[in-house]
Structure formats: structure tokens, C-alpha cells
Amino acid sequence: MSFQLETEKDVERLRQAALLLEAENRRLVARVVELTRKLMSAQGQDAEELQLRLQEVERQLAQRTAELFGPSSEKRPRPRQDEGDKPEEAAPQQGHGPRPQSTLPTLEVVHTLEEPDKQCPKCGGALAEMQGCYEEAEEVDVVERRFVLHRHKRQKYRCGCGGCVETALGPPKLQPGGRYSVDFAVEVAVAKYLDHLPLERQVRIMAREGLTVDSQTLWDQVEALARLLAPAHEALHAALLTRDVLGGDETRWPLLGSKNPKRWHAWALCAPDAVVYRIAEGRTAEDARAMLKDFSGILMVDGLGSYDSYAGHGGRFTLVHCWAHVRRKFVECEEKFPQATEAIELIGELYALEREYKVGPPDAARLLELRQHKSRAVIDRLHQWARGVQALPGSALGQAVKYMSNMWTGLTRFLSDARVPLDNNATERALRGLVVGRKNHYGSRSRRGTEVAALFYSLLETAKLCGVDPKRYLREAALAALRGEEIPLPHQFEAVAVG
């Protein structure tokens, strides 16, 4: 089939022709430079002049190549920046495009023609390989997970005297004589408590991948790993209770098969870089005491009375309350009670002032001054509105106003303490993973199951908050425990791993 560049309309064929022409042009450029060098040497020109003339020839040829094959643009080139000048920020990418994948390993694959295709369709001549000339493209691929059966053969040694026999060490085991590796147990735990895959679902997935196993076996591995990591869960809880400010919250976590599954709740304590969970049969003051122990800092919570009850009967912490919960009450009734709009807008002003503070560098004194001079004025207006609003006590608006009034002391403590955040949203976000897990698992089947769930959610969600790979953390923590070492917590993990 003949090929006429002037009349060809097939985009793919034109692209291939352009690539061939560019490669041929590069070859000719190199040839012209070489011939010019030989000519000038034959004419006896000195080395310095020869070098300058060659540079000019290369520049001209490079310019012609750019005009033919470079991108078309009428923009003037940007002036070179001085060393002290800051580079201009790149314009944000418009629309959806390929995302950089800097963390993925890159595997280079070279594709070559089959022997029958190495023949010119026009003249029948053999096609020669163009060294270093490729058409490149990236492709994100997946390497399928596979299970293998490692047969460990531990070599035995003996002395000629017959008095000593030694055997080489094997890999560390979760359980003496166990058949499944530490990595296998970590894989199952991460799939269940981070990716929310119930064990039965994992069994079906593994069967497709060639492994025959049952859910009880998977549970045995997860439970053994939890026993190994139990000291880390306790240490994380103890470390969190030494913080100055914590957020507290709770959500349902049913215990399947119990007399009253709905009584069971997961309690959470959260800091910016850590969260710990405990699952208890209820939301009483005694459950709050078991969770908070001797905590003596500032605790931000919603309106659950158990915290107030414990605070009034031996608790040494200071209660503060969440403006997001208050705002939520007014939003829920705004459609039927337009008066609530003013309260919502005033609370919005409090958040706007907090965003104003975040523009500059962190400075507790500056934040406290902003709250004292600006936020306090907004609080005073909100208090005046609440005292003057007309609403029936039993109405949704009346209940929202009562909710805010009952917690007014805790809601306004942020005005005098820069450490107190405006809301408890960070703790609510920390509960999202556990809530998604509840939707998939429906809860736990045994009391031990609640303990194991609390442990893994605590360690995995804390690793996420610290920016540590959760799977890698579990593996390194388990190996440290098997070596008899102190288990590093997620926020200590990087320093321990590097050291």
C-alpha cells in the first residue's frame, strides 16, 4: 500500500511517520556535525575556531529540529530568574489527568517486533533496529497476590565427640509449631480491621487465589497476633492519658448473641496523632471511668451525661463541649424554625475567626488574643440571641437552645484556653473506620472479639494518623514482640525503624 505524506489523513500513520522522520533527522544532524568537523580539520583551522563553528552548526540544526518537531507556541520565552527570585507557582491542572505515582516501583519492559514483521512493506528490505529510539508510555498494572507453601529445612549440626547437636533457627512463629507466618496473620488482620473484609469473605477470596482455609483458622491467627500486641494497646492507652487535651466519643458496636446487643458501645479517646478504643457493655459513668482512669487534662465531648457524672464523682479532668454538635441541633430545626438561621450564622463566625488564625504560624498567645477580642463578642451576641428567642420548650428549636444553654460553660471555655479546639470533629473522624467495619461485620461474636477489634482498630487507625504504613507497622511491631523487645508505638515507629 502506497503512503503519501501530503494526502495521508490517518492520525496514527502520520504520527508514526513523524517519529521516523525525527529519528532520521537526528541521525543526519550527527552526520553533518561530523562531516563539518572533518572539513574544517582538513582546511587547517585552529582548534578554538573549530569548536566555535561546530557549536554554531549544532545550534542551527537544533533550532530547525525544534521548529519542525517542537510544540507550537507564540509565547515569548520566560526570562531567566536570578538566584534570589522565587519561581512562579505552576498553574493548577485543569480537569482530570494522570496522577504522579512516585511511590510505585517502575519496571521497564522493552517490546520488539516479531521476525516476520522486520521487513519493509514498501521495498521488502530488512528493518534495522534504531538504537536508543523508543516510543514510550506508562501503564499502571497489578501484580496478583499469591500464597506459597514455604518448606523450612533447619539444618542440624553435631560434634564428632557426640556431645553436642545444634539446629539452625527457623522463622519467628506466632505460636509454637504454627503453620501460618507472621506476615499471613498481619495480612488477615489488616484486611479485616482496615479494609473491613469479614473473615468469611476473605476465605472466599483466598479460595480463588488457590488457598484452602476456613474462617476459624483465620480467626486463630488474628487472635494470636492480638495476644502478642496486647502490650502495645495498653501502652498506647496509657500514653494517650498523659496528654493535655483529648477528644472523647462513642458509637454502637453490637455483641452478637448477647441478651442486649445494642447496649454495647465502642469508646474512643483521640489526640491529633493517636486514638485508642475500648468496647464496653454500656455508656455508664463506670464505663467512662474505665476509659478515662486518672486522666487529669481537658476532655472535649458531646452531651452524654456519663462524662458529667464521672467528672462529679472522682474525675479529675475538665470538661469542654463541642460547637459542631450545637450547630447540628440548629441545622436540624432550621427548616421549620427560621430563627435558627441567626444562631447558625453566629457559630459560622466563630469558625471563620479560627480560620483567620490558621493563616499565620501557630502561636497560642495570638490565638488567645483573637478569641478574647473577637470570638468573645460573637459569643455575647449568641448568648443574647438565645435569651431573647421565642420557642416552646418542647419544640426542636427550644431543645436546641436548651442543649446549648446546658453546656454553656464547657462551650465557652475555649475563650480562656488556647489549647481547647472549637469542636470534636477529629474524634468523630477517628470513628469512621470503626463504623465502616461495623457495617461490614455487624459487630463482634464474642467478648474476646470486642477486645481484639478494639486493639487492632487502635493500632491501625493510630498508624494512619501518624502517616505510618499500617501493615508495615503491625509487622514490625509483631517481630519486635517476638524478639522480646519493647513494642514501638506508631508515633515512635519511624525512629525505631531507622535506628
From TrEMBL:
Biased composition (Basic and acidic residues): 73-89
Membrane-spanning parts: none
Pfam families in the record: DDE_Tnp_IS66, zf-IS66
Residues covered by the Transposase IS66 central domain: 178-451
Domain Transposase IS66 zinc-finger binding: 117-161
Region (Disordered): 64-103
InterPro entries in the cross-refs: Transposase-related, Transposase_IS66_central, Znf_dom_IS66
Taxonomic superkingdom: Bacteria
NCBIfam families linked to this entry: transpos_IS66
Protein name: IS66 family transposase
